Amino acid sequence: xxxxxxKHAVAxxxxxxxxxxxxxxxxxxxxxxxxxxxxxxTVAGVRCAFxxxxxxxxxxxxxxxxxxxLRNAERFEPPYLDxxxxxxxxxxxxxxxxxxxxxxxxAEGDVAFIIExxxxxxxxxxxxxxxxxxxxPPTSSVLKGPREGFIEELKTNLSILRRRIKTPDLAVRxxxxxxxxxxxxxxxxxxxxxxxxxxxxxxxxISRIDIDGVIDxxxxxxxxxxxxxxxxxxxGTTEKPDVAEAKLLEGRIVILVDGSPIAxxxxxxxxxxxxxxxxxxxxxxxASMIRIFRxxxxxxxxxxxxxYIALQTYHFQLLPLKFLMTLMAATTGIPFPxxxxxxxxxxxxxxxxxxxxxxxxxxxxSLSVVGAIVLGDTAVKSGLISSPSVxxxxxxxxxxxxxPDQVGTLSILRLLFLCISAVTGFVGMxxxxxxIVAYLSxxxxxxxxxxxPYAPRINPDLQDGILKSGTSTIERRPYSxxxxxxxxxxxxxxx
Length: 495
Hints:
Layout: H1 7-10, H2 19-29, E1 36-43, E2 46-53, H3 59-71, H4 80-87, E3 95-98, H5 103-107, E4 111-115, E5 120-124, H6 154-164, E6 170-177, E7 183-190, H7 196-207, H8 217-224, E8 236-238, H9 241-250, E9 253-257, E10 263-266, H10 284-313, H11 321-331, H12 338-358, H13 361-381, H14 387-400, H15 407-424, H16 426-442, E11 444-445, E12 448-449
Antiparallel strand pairs: 1-2, 2-4, 3-5, 4-5, 6-7, 7-9, 8-10, 9-10, 11-12
Helix pairs in contact: 6-9, 10-14, 10-15, 12-13, 12-14, 12-15, 15-16
């Protein structure tokens, strides 16, 4: 079954063996696009032609390794595949395709070679896509450790992982997804470690994706997640090859999408986002302390605004007298109820955050300064909002970036707890927290409990949970992740 962007147009090409008939038809298939180049060539008295997309083909290799040897060929007779193999300088396999199907490879950036009186097109892969250099990802900078990151070119990303994992057990499966984009998707796993059932399930879901185009790995994630309407993350993401390598060695599956620097890792556990690649390049005690701070930052983000509203509205008797007097002095004269005031401040901070992200870098810094200092200070001095509200939202905004991959989820949870606390106080917050924890405990992600290793409690995996043990002491792969080989390293001999 042909899965290319030009399936509907290729059918219009009549199976022809005449160069003069074929070239107008393939130009018509590509809507007379100016970047489609058709170059005629005579090889030992036989009329031939090349068809390719200008800008996506390495013209130097085409000229030196393909065209020049064919020009100098003294004989060019059937079978043409053997003649081409013996004549041209080409390291990969020459792919013969039916003449009526050659528009697909050309659209993907390959070169189609057509011969007069032959119903087969011969495809050369001479792609030369523009790509940026391998640099440190802007979202995952580290003080110590590898600094290279994935880029938007799939083959480069695969070569980085192959260079890190030098074993034939690293298995790669390719898929073409998208009726028009025909985006290459690679599914990677370690043979002998990853669970084949999980690999087959993920591959089956990807193969059944039917969409017009795939722009980023997020498109693929939305199709393979089990809970379609949940706002909780169901797939891990990383731009760091060392993190992807570690996930593969644990038995996880990594998905790479051509055109995206974001690798998707499955199965996913929520506590993965508390961990960071830098934790494994620093001391164990330091890593454990930082992970605790990240958890505290996430909890601060979720509960602090709601707790502030509940204390100010329903449970002010729980506050110390001096603190209560200070709070009353700061909020006297504010025209809005505490819940409305907090909601206004939260919306203001979200608008400023989104505006600063979408402005050019230097203008974004200026906008942040103006919004946070000028507008915030003016609003407080004018008596529209109170300074404690600004402080609470500022602390919540800082805490949310302790776990950057969970920014979207934490923002929604913060709003939910703020609204429920405005209506029912601490009672509603406690009930909502119990409901969310119960819901998360019931989730599974490709056979992995979502809250593992804490719910259910898996004692061996606690060595690399919120608290981290030394790498030399973790002898088993995670029991939270389905895999077929638990042994990570041999036990240290007793001395």
